[in-house]
Specification:
The complex is a heterodimer of chains A (about 270) and B (about 375).
Chain A lengths: L6 E4 L21 E4 L2 E2 L10 E4 L5 H8 L5 H14 L4 H11 L6 H11 L3 H9 L20 H9 L4 H16 L4 H4 L6 H12 L1 H15 L7 E8 L2 E8 L4 H21 L1
Parallel strand pairs in A: 2-4
Antiparallel strand pairs in A: 1-4, 2-3, 5-6
Chain B lengths: L1 H5 L3 E5 L6 H9 L5 E4 L11 H7 L2 E5 L6 E3 L12 E4 L2 E2 L4 E2 L13 E4 L2 H16 L5 E3 L10 H4 L1 H9 L6 E6 L16 E6 L3 H7 E2 L4 H13 L3 E9 L5 H15 L7 E6 L1 E2 L4 H8 L4 H4 L3 E2 L5 E2 L2 H18 L5 E3 L4 H8 L15 H8 L2
Parallel strand pairs in B: 1-2, 1-3, 3-8, 5-9, 9-10, 10-11, 11-13, 13-14, 14-18
Antiparallel strand pairs in B: 4-5, 6-8, 7-12, 15-17, 16-17
Helix pairs in contact in B: 9-12, 12-13
Classes of the chains: A alpha+beta (about 270), B alpha/beta (about 375).
């Protein structure tokens, strides 16, 4: 039988330098954990609580065991805390820690993390809640100064938006900002993500949007047969008619298709 | 040559490539303190940052290639009307810096790689010939993953390839370049089956988007030199880039080409519009900001997954160029690159497979036979 002595240490005697603001509180049933006198978990426990000092073994393994999952923002803050606390060992921790969380350290990842750390905590939390990855944040790397863009990231984090919509809104916001749109214009003025995104897309593609809108208006006024709906729609790089026909007999269908010939002629004249 | 040598900070030669003619030549051209023999790639591959991608153009890495050199053009996809173009890749990356370059979408090696084993590439071609394709009209280009000629004064691969293709007169060797580096092969004896082609754009676009390339007039001058030595030419007006003065600028480009060359000198030309993989967008944005016509472009997802201009915009641009050329001379032969059958119908009135004068470029039998080897 192997007996391992576990050292308990008052939290008041532990450093909180490695507090990376984890999103989930450490479960009350477990003691806080520490490594070489630095708290790894339970950062909000009272100073009189005890922390379990782990064996002087693998720090990366300890993190992965304590935090099986970390969002990109949490990992970014953790890396920042580790670098500040253990500058001489940081390079040894960095790559294995990233690997433990299914990331591969690279110059690009480093730049993404630096950019993310310049944003507000609310945006960082949003990134983790939506499970955004490094590629989703690539638009931030195009900004010469992230601080100028912070009102946008703050507003985006408040919008009730899906991950896919949010990633697209971030990209459009950055591009429109770089194209010279005033930031105030870009801030959402509606709680409807789809309306908001549509506005951003229209601003990002003004010529095509204007052209599509002109066709949409025109097509709505064409002499559509009864129970036939025609709309100008965009399908990727192609735009054209989408036609729905309601018909109850072969004869009726034939008549409607004949009537649609005149629509075809109208379309030909306008093309 | 000095300008070309000065472009590179360092040359790394893999130890397995030390005995190659390329390695020997580079050691003669570069000072010793800028050449190292290495046992493994000196920089790790992986997703590159924008600065790593830019720096990769200044580091040369010479190593043998272990994969297949000869492939169908990677742009061909189901749903597109594609020509019978094949590629022979003797390197990866480019020393020039076009904003729209598709290498930005996939290169993960932080160095410009040149393969030292061109002989293996030629052996592959020999096997294809021996498999019954020697008499087929294969068109083989070397400018897909690397510019065919911008580094040729260093490698002199053009001379080796021209000599090889003399034994395969039915095949066409096509160099595709944005440089004006042709002097090193002009006097090479050839079988009349070498096409020297240039990607061209109006000078306004060259200055805005094709950084580090030869000017339009330098490319056209180089083309004239090639004509004088019996080489055939081609121009690829690709990618056409929409900008407010596009009609004026592309019109002037067409007029200049039509004034300086004849359809007999240019057996074919291609046009293509801006298109790129979605994953390329981030790299372009970081490297060129939103000041580029390319990053500003209004694009949509095409059926091949690439981002493209609206189909009607592309059709208008293609029709403009085709009609402008045919107004000069109906004998000009142009085809569209990586376009859908619908675009072909709207612009040319018919598919390329049904046009007799396009048959040699769009013969599906050639593609099937080559892919079967």
């Amino acid at each position: 039988m192997v007996v391992r002595l576990m050292l308990l240490k008052p939290i008041s005697q532990c450093s909180k330098c490695l507090d990376f603001l984890p999103r989930r509180p450490w479960p009350q049933v477990f003691p806080a954990l520490a490594w070489r006198g630095h708290l790894l978990t339970g950062f909000h426990r009272p100073p009189t609580d005890m922390a379990l000092e782990l064996d002087d073994g693998g720090l990366v393994d300890a993190y992965k065991a304590a935090y099986p999952e970390l969002g990109l923002s949490e990992l970014a803050r953790l890396l920042r805390a580790l670098e500040a606390t253990f500058p001489e060992y940081f390079l040894e921790f960095r790559n294995p820690l990233c690997t433990a969380y299914s990331l591969r350290w690279s110059d690009r990842l480093g730049q993404t993390i630096q950019a993310l750390l310049q944003t507000q905590l609310s945006f960082q939390t949003w990134v983790d809640d939506k499970k955004l990855g490094p590629r989703d944040l690539s638009p931030l790397l195009a900004l010469p100064e992230i601080s100028e863009f912070l009102p946008y990231t703050e507003a985006l984090a408040r919008l009730p938006i899906s991950k896919v919509e949010g990633v697209r809104a971030l990209e459009l916001g950055v591009e429109l900002f770089l194209l010279g749109r005033p930031l105030n214009d870009l801030l959402p003025s509606t709680d409807s993500p789809s309306l908001y995104l549509r506005r951003l897309e229209q601003w990002r593609r003004p010529r095509t949007s204007e052209n599509d809108e002109a066709w949409r208006t025109d097509v709505a006024q064409w002499p559509w047969p009864a129970q036939v709906q025609g709309q100008w729609q965009r399908f990727g790089d192609q735009a054209g008619l989408e036609i729905k026909i309601r018909t109850t007999s072969a004869d009726d269908l034939k008549k409607k298709l004949e009537r649609l010939n005149s629509i075809g002629e109208t379309w030909s004249c306008k093309s | 040559m000095q300008e070309l040598v000065a472009k590179f900070e360092h040359v790394y030669i893999d130890q397995t490539a030390v005995g190659s003619s390329l390695a020997r030549r580079l050691r003669e051209l570069f000072p010793d303190d800028r050449v190292s023999v290495v046992e493994a790639p000196p920089l790790a591959a992986g997703e590159l940052s924008a600065r790593e991608f830019s720096r990769s153009k200044r580091l040369l890495y010479v190593t043998p290639f272990k994969g297949k050199f000869f492939k169908r053009c990677p742009g061909s996809r189901p749903g597109l009307s594609c020509c019978n173009y094949f590629v022979l890749n003797w390197g990866l990356q480019c020393d020039m810096n076009c904003s729209y370059c598709y290498l930005q979408s996939f290169i993960n090696t932080p160095m410009l790689t040149i393969y030292s084993n061109l002989d293996d590439a030629l052996n592959e071609l020999r096997e294809i010939g021996e498999a019954g394709l020697k008499a087929q009209a294969l068109r083989v280009g070397t400018g897909e993953t690397v510019d065919s000629l911008s580094l040729d004064p260093l490698t002199l691969y053009s001379q080796t390839l021209i000599e090889f293709f003399r034994d395969y007169p039915a095949w066409t060797l096509e160099f595709k370049t944005k440089s004006n580096k042709v002097d090193q092969f002009l006097n090479s004896p050839h079988a009349g089956n070498v096409v020297v082609s240039w990607s061209v754009n109006p000078q306004h676009i060259v200055e805005r988007e094709e950084h580090g390339t030869a000017s339009l007039s330098e490319r056209l001058e180089a083309a004239h030199k090639c004509v004088g030595h019996g080489y055939r030419l081609a121009f690829h007006i690709d990618p056409m880039i929409w900008h407010p003065e596009w009609r004026e600028n592309y019109g002037a480009l067409v007029d200049e080409i039509a004034a300086r060359f004849t359809p007999e000198q240019l057996p074919y030309m291609s046009v293509g519009a801006l298109r790129f993989q979605p994953e390329q967008r981030a790299m372009m944005r970081e490297r060129f900001g939103l000041n580029s016509y390319v990053t500003q472009a209004e694009t949509f997802s095409g059926r091949d997954g690439k981002l493209r201009y609206d189909a009607a915009v592309r059709q208008e641009m293609f029709q403009f160029v085709l009609q402008r050329f045919h107004a000069h001379n109906p004998a000009w032969r142009l085809f569209m690159c990586m376009e859908s059958p619908e675009t072909w119908l709207k612009v040319a009135g018919t598919s390329p497979f049904k046009q007799p004068h396009m048959h040699d470029l769009f013969d599906p039998k050639v593609v099937r036979a080559a892919e079967a080897t």
